[in-house]
Design brief:
Shape: elongated
CATH class of the largest domain: Alpha Beta
Strand content: 15-25%
Helix content: 40-55%
Structural class: alpha+beta
Number of domains: 2
Number of strands: 7
Order of helices and strands: HHEHHEEHEEHEE
Radius of gyration: 19 Å
CATH superfamily of the largest domain: Histidine kinase-like ATPase, C-terminal domain
Strand order of the largest sheet: 2-4-5-7-6
Length: 201
């Protein structure tokens, strides 16, 4: 509502407002939109542990297809080359699995660098669990931050460099832990990143 009324103010009084006033309205509108995104992300974060949906047999092939469908425009705009192993069927919350893959893939796309973006999704069977990895050739991060990036509101870049609320990876962590798995990351600046997570068979 705040954003809508600011836009009406800008449109209806544009001839009466000077350049500075127009800029102030723009700043306020951007702030309202960021707040809306933050509230949405906080609700998603809270929902992970409060949802009581029972786990069911889930095709991770279908999960990945759903995540890529949701990210279709972003993938096309970035020109990302995404390849993947054959993914297994698991007992899981299908909706949360889609969100997990979607968040990790959108993260890889967001932090890309110049040149062809390549993302490789792997799945490896290990005793009573599956080990998954999502590897990219993006900007990477310093290894000293590999734990912090999963903390809620933790951002390593300013909002002017990269958009976002700093909640996406926190949601990923909560989803994986709800499924009794672990998630971690390995990276070096300028050499891309690999996000690993495990899920029980």
């Amino acid at each position: 509502m705040i954003s809508m009324y600011l836009e009406l103010l800008r449109l209806n009084y544009k001839d009466k407002l000077d350049k500075a006033a127009q800029e102030f309205i723009g700043f306020a509108k951007n702030g309202a939109e960021r707040s809306e995104k933050l509230i949405h992300d906080l609700l998603e974060y809270a929902k992970v542990s409060t949802m009581d949906k029972s786990l069911e047999k889930t095709s991770l092939e279908a999960v990945l297809k759903g995540a890529l469908s949701n990210l279709e425009l972003l993938v096309l705009e970035s020109g990302a080359d995404i390849t993947h192993d054959r993914l297994p069927d698991l007992t899981a919350d299908t909706t949360q699995m889609v969100q997990l893959f979607q968040n990790l893939l959108s993260n890889a796309i967001k932090y890309r660098r110049e040149g062809q973006l390549k993302i490789i999704i792997s799945a490896k069977e290990e005793n009573n669990r599956w080990l998954f990895s999502i590897k990219d050739n993006g900007i990477g991060i310093d290894a000293q931050h590999k734990e912090q990036i999963f903390d809620i509101f933790r951002r390593l870049h300013s909002k002017t460099e990269y958009s976002g609320t700093g909640i996406g990876l926190s949601i990923c962590k909560k989803i994986v832990e709800r499924h009794h798995g672990k998630i971690w990351m390995e990276s070096q600046p300028g050499q891309g990143a690999v996000f690993y997570f495990t899920l029980p068979k």
